[in-house]
Amino acid sequence: MAGTTAIEWTDATWNPVTGCTKISAGCDNCYAERFSERFRGVPGHSFEVGFDLTLRPARLEQPLFWRQPKMIFVNSMSDLFHKGVPFAFVDKVFDTMERADWHTFQVLTKRSSRMRDYVNKRYKDGIAPLHIWLGTSVEDGSRKSRIRHMQGMNASIKFLSIEPLIGPMGKMDLEGIDWVIVGGESGPKARPMHPDWVREVRDHCNDTGVAFFFKQWGGIRPKSGGRILDGEEWSELPSTRPNQGVASVAAE
After folding, report:
1. What gap in Å lies between CA 128 and CA 37, rounded to an integer?
2. Contact 182, 172 (CB under 8 A)
3. What residue segments make up the domains of the chain, in order of their start?
4. Which residues pair with 18 in a beta bridge?
5. What three-state secondary structure class fits 245?
């Protein structure tokens, strides 16, 4: 649950929490659940309890020992802002991210209101550090309230992961949003994504100057359909980037 990853928009994953519960239609065919449940009951395996929500305190300081700067997706196998994760534990995750400021951390949640409330309390006198990017998942136009939660958050970099895109988004207000990722669903029950849904989001981004990243068309396998949209590969990142210098001091 650390090191390299095949996810196109990050370098590594860090999972101080694993497991989750479904909250909306975008969760129906969760890849993390599908992977984790394969190992339920296997003695000694890190997913011996399957996809049950599990805190992993032994992993809290992992990024401090990664000397080379990385873009790190936080909790690719869970949701840091699940109601079952105590804020005292979330505090420890943010403590590590603040200390490991040579990395870029990408925190993604579907519990956007809980993230907003936490972040606004933690950074009540300012905004989250530039190297901590905060985002929410949105699967179709019925979940735009999550975008509004992001817009009300004291964050330096705000992003949307519109994946899996399972329906049209319609008109979006992207004010204050720095980055939008779009991707189709993958796996044996993958729901199709209409190209016009993707174009609509891309055009909104282009019209408003928001960085656009097209991750995949999806299918049985994540790479099944490639990631070319209208003859181009879209891999834009937010224009404001934190200092990517190597850490000067190793973790104790």
Report:
1. 35
2. no
3. 12-233
4. 54
5. coil
Distance CA(75)–CA(2), nearest Å, equals 10
Side by side, the strands of the sheet bearing 71-74 are 12-14, 71-74, 104-109, 132-137, 157-162, 179-183, 211-216
pTM as predicted = 0.93
Amino acid identity, position 27: C
Q: Model confidence at 151, in pLDDT bands (50, 70, 90)?
A: very high
DSSP 3-state of 30: coil
Q: What is the pLDDT, as a whole number, of residue 246? A: 35
The per-residue pLDDT for range 70-82, each reduced to its tens digit, is 999 999 999 999 9
Q: Note the pLDDT tens digit of each residue in 73-131.
A: 999 999 999 999 999 999 999 999 999 999 999 999 999 999 999 999 999 999 999 99
CB contact at 8 A, 163 and 189: no
Query: Can you say how many angstroms the Cα of residue 80 is from the centroid of all Cα atoms in its chain?
Result: 10
Task: Let me know if 203 is exposed, middle or buried by CB neighbors in 10 A (0-12, 13-18, 19+).
Answer: exposed
Beta carbons of 134 and 161 less than 8 angstroms apart: no
pLDDT digits (tens, 9 = 90+) for 53-74: 999 999 999 999 999 999 999 9
Angle of CA points 48, 53, 57, to nearest 5°: 85
The one-character DSSP state at 246 is P
d(CA 132, CA 121): 16
User: Tokens for 27?
Assistant: 């969760």
- Report the distance separating Cα 95 and Cα 89, nearest Å: 10
